[in-house]
Amino acid sequence: MKKLVFDYEMKLTFSAPVTDHRFQLRCVPATGPRQQVVDVEVDIEPANEYETTIDSFDSVVLTGYIPEPHTMFNYTVKGIAFVDNAHIKPEIYKPLYRFNSALTVPGPNIERMIDMCRIRLSALPIDATPIDKAQEVMHEVFHAFTYTPGSTTIRTTAEQALAQRKGVCQDYAHVMLSVCRHVGLTARYIAGLLGGEGATHAWVEIYHDGRWIGLDPTHDRMVDDNYITIAHGRDYRDCMLDIGIFSGLEVQQTQWVNASVHEQRL
Length: 266
Description:
The protein has helices spanning 108-122, 130-144, 158-164, 169-182, and strands spanning 2-25, 35-45, 50-54, 60-66, 70-83, 146-147, 166-167, 187-194, 201-208, 211-216, 221-222, 227-233, 242-247, 253-263.
């Protein structure tokens, strides 16, 4: 187990005043099967009242409304997470993670990788676990990509990312999800934080023996106690950390994000 102190901050700057700003945030890590989260502090600017709910994927959702003109929108989330991958609690099986989602539908490039992974999996021992199989897929995805910030957007599909063979953590995760689901594995998308990184991170979890086990295709390794889960779902669209609509005239927006995670000795 590790005690991780986290501090996540997002700043959104508008080129002109906006009004009637409605926002939905999934930025608060919640206590779950592999982590206990305590002492959470949320600060949103401009100051306003917001509602806290839990969505169908068990993610914490903050929703609010800012009617008055403003040129910036900021939020910070601070807290402590006790992460223990050695004692992950069981969860009920959900078959929806076996099927395609909007951003993971295979095309020719994904289908070729599925075929390659099926060959790799056929060479495994007969008693290979879903995690053994997922690791083979992870290795294949890792070697297929060059990590290239700015090469994709939040709307880029797994097929589009693999076609250009470059992307960021979201793309690695989407490709791995797509392949896993087509070689018989139950897989879901995770948005979270990782110690030592300056932004949020994404990885994959595979369902095995009643528990969800994490694999990080961006780094080609198993998820350990340095990872904090914020949200999970079928793909990125279920885990968007901040969504909003507002009124304004020809408004451009600039986003700045920083995430700090460091271990505090128990």
